[in-house]
Write a structure and sequence with these properties.
Shape: globular
Radius of gyration: 21 Å
Helix content: 55-70%
Strand order of the largest sheet: 1-2-4-3
Order of helices and strands: HHHHEHEHEEHEEHHHHHHH
Distance between the termini: 47 Å
Largest sheet: 4 strands, mixed
Number of strands: 6
Strand content: 5-15%
Length: 369
């Protein structure tokens, strides 16, 4: 491992993640209480306490942290489990509500990804992202029956129908800033939508079933989700855990070639090679699950950003708080993105064009709050 960002805390953190996902690796050396506290802080920063705890449980007894630390983890894990149970039922309820209104839907990320985990209830839950069939205008009309002033962005509208749980209703799963790349992507989404709306999985503890994307769809979409957040605010290790678990579901050579072909059309090969490097470095991803050859230079740059910024960029000090003035916030995001221009010029440059276009488009459509 590269010492540039792989100190003892990081090495232990990643070893515990690997154990949680199926390995049985002992620690190279026993950790002090202070070092375990550093592991806790990193686990919290990356929203992976539940998964790391599963890895701790597989350590030899003489390498386990002290009892107080274990009880602290156990308490948080129980909270995560309860939150997942609540969100599982809420997710099923949300899909049922849209179905009653004549909308087909599929759950993106979140609880759909959790079923891939050895312990599904230990993935830290987030909000509900639901891709609804019906077109932007029809969906907006429906949402505004409940919330007349609901604002929307290019790809989704907030729909706070459940107390304490955020719901994002997607017109489309995602986007790319460059207009031609985005046109290809949106056409691909439309061509594959029908299959996604009919691909159901069962949630844990008989919570119900939901439609989730197929693996071939997610090989593009989840990587695109990582890509988008990398430029906008930052990504976290949790999103990489989701992706490595997806890849380990397996694929044929033909399926791999189709995935790589689409990623090439979207000009995402360079970023893909970075992610492959990271997954091989920290998760020991087997060669048979690699989409393309990993690139060390690209991978080290992206990994350094991930470790610095934390889960979804919550610890990204380069971006101003959203509560600040709009100019200050967007200027800070522009500066942050501009750092990537050498490696990713296409998305970096077109991203600013897309921001400006979307701002005026939202005003024109009446979607801006």
């Amino acid at each position: 491992m590269n010492d540039k960002f792989m100190g003892k805390t990081q090495q232990t953190f990643f070893l515990l993640l690997r154990n949680a996902l199926g390995n049985n690796e002992p620690l190279p050396t026993t950790l002090t209480d202070r070092e375990w506290h550093e592991v806790w802080k990193m686990s919290y920063k990356q929203a992976l306490i539940g998964v790391v705890f599963d890895g701790i449980c597989k350590l030899p007894k003489d390498q386990s942290p002290n009892k107080q630390f274990i009880l602290k983890c156990f308490s948080v894990v129980r909270q995560i489990e309860q939150s997942n149970r609540k969100l599982n039922h809420a997710t099923v309820k949300t899909t049922e509500q849209f179905a009653k209104e004549g909308f087909k839907s599929v759950i993106l990320k979140g609880q759909g990804n959790s079923v891939l985990y050895p312990e599904p209830l230990h993935r830290t839950p987030g909000d509900i992202d639901i891709w609804v069939d019906g077109g932007r205008d029809r969906i907006m009309k429906y949402v505004r029956n409940y919330f007349p002033n609901a604002g929307a962005r290019y790809h989704h509208v907030d729909f706070p129908i459940l107390n304490g749980i955020e719901v994002e209703v997607h017109f489309t799963p995602s986007w790319l800033s460059q207009w031609h790349d985005n046109m290809i992507l949106q056409r691909w989404f439309k061509e594959r939508a029908k299959e996604q709306y009919t691909h159901f999985v069962n949630l844990p503890e008989d919570a119900g079933s939901i439609a989730v994307p197929t693996n071939d769809f997610n090989r593009i979409f989840l990587l695109l989700h990582i890509y988008r957040h990398f430029f906008d605010e930052g990504i976290g290790i949790r999103q990489l855990v989701d992706y490595v678990l997806l890849l380990r579901q397996g694929f044929t050579e033909k399926e791999r070639e189709e995935t790589v072909s689409m990623l090439s059309k979207l000009h995402m090969i360079r970023f893909t090679s970075a992610i492959m490097y990271i997954l091989k470095l920290i998760f020991k991803l087997e060669d048979k699950y690699m989409l393309i050859e990993p690139n060390k230079e690209q991978g080290e740059f992206v990994l350094n950003e991930i470790i610095r910024t934390g889960n979804f960029g919550y610890y990204n000090k380069n971006i101003s708080n959203k509560a600040d003035k709009a100019f200050k916030y967007y200027y800070s995001k522009w500066k942050y993105k501009f750092r990537f221009i050498k490696l990713y010029p296409r998305e970096t440059l077109w991203g600013n064009v897309f921001w400006v276009w979307q701002y005026f488009w939202r005003i024109y459509k009446g979607y801006k709050k």
